[in-house]
Amino acid sequence: MKWTEQQIPRQDGRVAVVTGANTGLGFETARQLAEHGASVVLAVRDTAKGQQAAARINGDVSVRELDLSSLESVRAAAAGLRADHPKIDLLINNAGVMYTPRQTTREGFELQFGTNHLGHFAFTGLLLDLLLPVPGSRVVTVSSTGHRIRAAIHFDDLQWERSYSRIGAYGQSKLANLMFTYELQRRLAAHGTTVAVAAHPGISNTELVRNTPALVRRPVAWLAPMLTQSAAAGALPTLRAAADPSVLGGQYYGPDGLNEARGHPKPATSSADSYDLTLQQRLWAVSEDLTGVRFPVGRVAAAA
Length: 304
Known about the structure:
Elements lengths: L14 E5 L4 H12 L3 E6 L2 H9 L4 E6 L5 H14 L5 E4 L17 H21 L6 E5 L23 H23 L6 E5 L14 H14 L3 H4 L1 H8 L8 E4 L9 E3 L9 H15 L13
Parallel strand pairs: 1-2, 1-4, 2-3, 4-5, 5-6, 6-7
Antiparallel strand pairs: 7-8
Helix pairs in contact: 3-4, 4-5, 4-9, 5-9
């Protein structure tokens, strides 16, 4: 059976935090969770737009300022959530930037790596102890098929200071999202409550593509009806990862159509690099050093 929003169980009593929830995939994810009974926090950079989005959702919705390109903002948002919520059931790391000209975060990190990976890494680490005691709690991180395109973790130049490729930098950040999920799941497994899951939306028609080079954007816009799906459809893999009772920690969900571009959500596989245990652990250590955030779950020794 094709999985749709009709299969989302009731979410009454659950607290869900969705980053980047004022538009696109994040909005559709938040809307469905709220309409199925969850108390949803829209964690957004622009709170005015967040309030406008909240007004369009039927359910218990609040807005929290979160700028993932600033670790100060990440810490403030996490502190505010901790003050307001004794527990969190779902943390959905959805926000992101794509194909931006070279820019840096407040701390000087390359913008795509700093926002898409490091910001979410820090946010998750600062909130994780609110999820750990909660049965069925999940951390869902949104990656992309872009994790396969010119993608590698450039440990010798993580911030792209020597040369810059907006496509390569995006690929690095989305590969990092998957490595983070897999290593986090390994650490969570010993606790037996919270799980980490990843998802990707295929090719969805959202504002995320606004920085795509014009040479690519124009033909994609012309072919969009044949190549892309709506934001509502693109959110389904995230929603399945968040709400389907059959989901297992460490799984990755994406559309079931040709090249995983569109369709109904199903388990997917990611690139060989994403499963490399040594690279995952090295990225984790670097991410801790760069953000200053330590997780309340320790490293698991590799099997002999």
